[in-house]
Design goal:
341 residues; alpha/beta; Rossmann fold; Dihydrodipicolinate Reductase, domain 2; 2 domains; eight-stranded mixed β-sheet; 21% strand; globular; binds nicotinamide-adenine-dinucleotide
Length: 341
């Protein structure tokens, strides 16, 4: 049976541990320099290692790397060097260059690298992708993504969350951008404005972007972690019980023959009439889905066992990070920026 170690037992790492248990996948060990991780490991009945090298020496079958972004490169490369498949939390790395190094090393060594863009594992997302590809919206024309949420002051007590690169663009909008890429294809160019006017930290606390896709779709995206509002994937998807649920949507896609609101899965069309006086009707896509972190853990175990391909590979994580990097560059240049190949 595949045994997976979790490196970084913080906010998301502890959720990965629970997801592995729910998926019936044995946990190999918990890796974290913080002494409090020993209790977490004990709760799961597995060894605690203070560093990744010590854990890798005991041969886990895979590692979920849920450490701070700046550690992703070294952690992933250490796993790849000893032939251990690794699922790296998003963003794949702190920089595009580091992400490229991870993907290149994984490909050269033939070691699977996955990225933790867990939304791809949600049933309603898979259903939406199938229906878009089947032409339910006609030709996609436009999209709008919303991430407005209020992070409490205490969230920023952890030093790395105030450090450059830990703002809501890299931490949160990257999820929306990956979802947009999953549903609409590659990003062609980006324009964006960011501001830190609410908290005054080095990182932005809100931003707006205009994203053009290769397909011609034009998307507007809003991101803020300083606004009280019900429109974020976190609050609307109900996939993480930590967030209070709302009955709203966070992503809208419009096409020549219909439109879609997610994650509620409302698919609107007028029966092909394309006539503003014809009543439009709503179909609700089914969202039968396990916890997406559980589905992601199962995909990782299946990839390790050679039974599946990654739902979100390292290369996909790199492409999403490259698109986000273009967006961040656009906030600085004030011009049009393109993802680097
Ligand atoms: N998929 C998601 O929805 C999601 C949500 C939150 C965070 N994340 C990502 O997960 C990662 C961790 O975020 P978090 O909010 O859980 O952070 P966190 O600060 O809560 O936890 C990070 C943990 O890593 C440990 N750590 C630090 N250096 C380490 C090392 N060298 N080896 C092992 N452990 C080490 C820390 O002690 C801490 O316990 C980040 O990349 C973040 O972007 C993803």
């Amino acid at each position: 049976m595949t045994r997976i170690a979790v490196a970084g037992a913080g906010l998301i790492g502890t959720r990965h541990l629970d997801a592995l248990r729910l998926a019936g996948i044995p946990v190999h060990s918990v890796i974290d320099p913080d002494p409090s991780a020993a209790d977490i490991a004990a709760r799961h009945g597995v060894p605690h290692h203070a560093d990744l090298a010590a854990a890798l020496a005991t041969r886990p079958d895979g590692v979920i790397l849920s450490t701070p972004n700046t550690h992703h490169r070294d952690g992933a490369l250490a796993c790849i060097a000893v032939g251990v498949p690794v699922l790296v939390e998003k963003p794949l790395a702190a920089t595009v260059e580091d992400a490229r190094a991870i993907v290149a090393a994984g490909q050269a060594a033939g070691v699977p690298v996955l990225t933790g863009h867990y939304r791809r594992h949600q049933g309603v997302v898979a259903a939406a992708r199938e229906r878009i590809e089947a032409g339910a919206l006609g030709t996609p024309v436009a999209a709008h993504a919303m991430f407005w949420i209020a992070k409490p002051d205490g969230y920023f007590d952890t030093a790395w969350r105030r450090a450059p690169g830990a703002g809501p663009l890299l931490v949160n909008l990257i999820h929306d951008l990956d979802l947009l890429r999953f549903l609409l294809g590659e990003v062609e160019s980006v324009r964006a404005i960011a501001s830190n006017r609410v908290r005054g930290f080095e990182n932005e606390d809100h931003a707006a972007a205009l994203i053009a896709f290769d397909s011609g779709v034009i998307c507007t995206a809003q991101v803020s972690d300083a606004i009280v509002a019900p429109w974020s994937w976190e609050m609307t998807s109900h996939d993480n019980p930590a967030y209070p649920p709302t009955d709203q949507n966070a992503l809208w896609i419009g096409g020549t023959h219909g439109s879609l609101a997610l994650p509620r899965g409302d698919l609107w069309d007028d029966g092909g009439r394309r006539d503003w006086m014809t009543p439009i009707r709503r179909e609700t896509l089914t969202r039968a889905t396990p916890d997406p972190l559980v589905a992601q853990a199962r995909n990782f175990a299946d990839v390790i066992a050679g039974r599946a391909t990654p739902v979100c590979s390292g290369a996909e994580g790199l492409a999403t990070l490259a698109a986000l990097d273009a967006l961040i560059r656009a906030t600085r240049s004030g011009g049009v920026e393109r993802p680097t190949p």
